[in-house]
Amino acid sequence: MDFELKGKHAILTGGSRGIGRATVLALARQGVTVTTCHVRDSDDVGSLADDLAGLGADHLIARCDVADEAQVERLVDQAYERFGPVDLLVNNAGVISHLPLDHLGPDEWRRVVDTNLTGMYHTIRKALPRFAPGASVVNITSAVARHGMPAAAHYVASKAAVMGLTRALCKEFGPRGVRINAIASGLIETDQMGAVSDEGRAKYHEMIPLGRIGRPEEIAQAVLFLASGAASYITGATLDVDGGI
């Protein structure tokens, strides 16, 4: 499907693995020039660069911790200087850990919230003056923001806050012609799912009305839709892509 995004410039955070990687490649296949980042070097970063080169896609892959304001400013400046105004910002970078509240210390609380929520504040705020006319923002959140999850209060709180941030900023950005939406992702085949036992997978399949775990590419397709003209009157929304869980 052609989402008519050819020639656009996107910044996507956390692009080396999982949902981020699938979205970077989906954007590149649509003819989008992509700036993406990763927090640490890995083989995944090199293979992503190879994949993008194989598509003939012009791209920038940089190291950036979105919790660090100075690093985010440098990323946005590099992207703008190389590729010009930003048509799409996809806030995908995120971290998770599983700790009950009585074992959840302030350092770990801050690590998760600073990446998942404050990181979005940094990227949106720094990218705002670099946006092209008609730009859009897509924030990746999680279905657990609506349903909750034990031993993950910090993660759930950060993801629920993303929905509120999205709704608040649509009021500010609408008069500027900028749309901002979120995607609440369900259970997706990423590295984290690799540690789940066959028994655990069977339970997940029973929980999910569609009877299966989602694919990163299915989140990527939702990003393409929200970035496209087909979603031109959608802003402030959180789109559930979760198999009906």
Automatic annotation (TrEMBL):
It comes from the Bacteria. Residues 8-186 form the Ketoreductase domain. Belongs to the short-chain dehydrogenases/reductases (SDR) family. This is SDR family NAD(P)-dependent oxidoreductase. It comes from Actinoallomurus vinaceus.
